[in-house]
Each structure stands twice: as C-alpha cells, then as structure tokens.
C-alpha cells in the first residue's frame, strides 16, 4: 500500500482526491496538510511514500523549500499537483528533485497514475515539458536569457503580480531588498517592458503567473 500525504490549501481538493481514491487498493491517504507547517509535522511523525504537493501551499514560499523536502525526506517522492503553468514551473520543479508534475486541469486518473509510477521509481512529466526542456538546451545564450527566467525571477514575479512590495517579497524569500530590486530590473529587461504594470500583464500573457 502506497502511503500518501495530501498538501493543499483547499479542503475541497482534499475531499475530491480522497473520494476518488477511497476504493483504490494501492493508495492510502495517511495525512492531510493545509499549510507547510502541517506538512512538516506529518512528515516528522508518519511514514509517507508520496507527497501530493501544491506549489501554492501556504508557507511554501520558494522552490528552495521543495529542494529541502527532497533532501530531508529522500524516501518520500513528491508529486506536484497545482494550477501553476506546467510549461513554466515544471522544469524548475524537475531540477528541484520532484518526481512528477500534474496540472489540476488533468483528470484525477492522471494523478493516481503518477502516484503509482513515482512510487515505482519513475519520473512523470508531460511530453510538452520534455519538448520544452529539449528546446531550451538547443537555444543560443541570448535567446535563453530572454525566454528562460530563473527560479528566483519567477518567484519574485509571482509575488509582484500579487501586489506585494519589494520589502514584503524580500521578507518572504529571505532576501535583501536590494536583491529583489535587482531581480525586478532583470525581469523588466528579459520581458522587454519598462514598468511594473506592463511586467505583470506580460507575465500573464505568457502564462507565467
């Protein structure tokens, strides 16, 4: 039996996944977390084979936290289950060490299949992501700089789009405020815009936030 912990802000997501898996003979839900602190508490007390984790989980401010989860709980595989764009966020999730990325628009069958596959040692990403990773590798340096934002830049952009100020973002990501300003300037350059409003609008157009 695969022991699974669900980590998502929304009770309806917990309910839906539990209802779908209730008759599944391979998967057992052993924990439910509605924020990162709950998740850590569950992981410290229970054996978890697979974490089903939303990147928007309260308290999960950075992909670096996901990297730490991978290091601290190497026997627990991570399946990302989120509304965030797979094309934009899955490559960085893969680099962080997660085992699968399933978008919330997918059928729950895809999620249960991913849980079983990663427990068996597989890495599960869509063909779209695989093609994007291959294309990124083929681009020249200047093209990559424009099209491929770093993990930190994407995180800063997400918080800027939420209306947060540089100081707030610095506190959330544990960065210097000047460093956040630097990331903001890089984003303006890479997305070829001159102000914050256009930056956020461009990010939405490209499905980055």
């Amino acid at each position: 039996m695969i022991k699974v912990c669900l980590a998502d802000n929304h009770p309806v997501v917990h309910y839906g996944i539990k209802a779908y898996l209730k008759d599944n003979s391979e998967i057992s839900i052993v924990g439910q977390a509605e924020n990162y602190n709950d998740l850590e508490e569950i992981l410290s007390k229970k054996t978890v084979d697979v974490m089903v984790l939303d990147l928007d989980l309260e308290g999960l401010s950075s992909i670096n936290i996901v990297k730490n989860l991978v290091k601290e709980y190497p026997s627990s595989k991570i399946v990302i289950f989120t509304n965030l764009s797979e094309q934009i966020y899955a490559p960085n999730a893969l680099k962080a060490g997660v085992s699968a990325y399933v978008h919330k628009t997918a059928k729950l069958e895809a999620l249960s299949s991913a849980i079983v596959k990663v427990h068996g040692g597989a890495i599960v990403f869509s063909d779209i992501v695989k093609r994007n990773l291959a294309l990124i590798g083929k681009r020249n340096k200047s093209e990559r700089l424009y099209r491929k934002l770093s993990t930190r830049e994407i995180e800063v952009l997400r918080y800027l789009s939420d209306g947060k100020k540089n100081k707030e973002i610095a506190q959330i990501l544990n960065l210097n405020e000047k460093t956040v300003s630097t990331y903001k300037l890089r984003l303006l350059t890479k997305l070829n815009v001159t102000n914050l409003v256009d930056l956020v609008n461009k990010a939405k157009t490209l499905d980055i936030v």
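The chain has a mean pLDDT of 87. The radius of gyration is 18 Å.
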